[in-house]
Amino acid sequence: MADEEYTELVLSLVERIPPGRVMSYGAIAEYLGQGGPRQVGSVMSHYGGPVPWHRVVAANGRLVPGHEQEALRRHRSEGTPLKGDKVDIRRAAWWPPG
Question: How far apart are the first and last CA of the chain?
């Protein structure tokens, strides 16, 4: 698959994550059936600005490195379940229906 197609798949999935919910980099790759967490992270770091980037977190709930304060502010405003300065991944994880 071309890089542009993969980028579009990642970004369109991230746009579907509801407020207060998250997906990990690895969950996105698993759902798409291609790539891995690093590839998803690369797409997000280069092209993720226009989508709700803060809803993509590490598997342990860690927020986007370098943007933790802004991500935390956004999660609090959306009511995302948190554990300290991380997302409570068990309660906040989302998977597309169907």
Answer: 23
Q: Give dist(CA 84, CA 97) in Å, integer.
A: 29
Amino acid found at 38? R
List Cα–Cα distances, 69 to 23, 78, 87, in angstroms: 19, 14, 13
Asked if 20 and 92 count as a contact pair (C-beta separation under 8 A), the reply is yes
pLDDT digits (tens, 9 = 90+) for 12-53: 999 999 999 999 999 999 999 999 999 999 999 999 999 999
Share of residues in the chain with pLDDT > 90 (%): 95
What global pTM score does this model have? 0.94
Q: Domains of the chain: which residue ranges?
A: 3-92
The correct answer on CATH 3.40.50.300 for the domain covering 3-92 is no
Cα–Cα dist 54/69, whole Å: 10
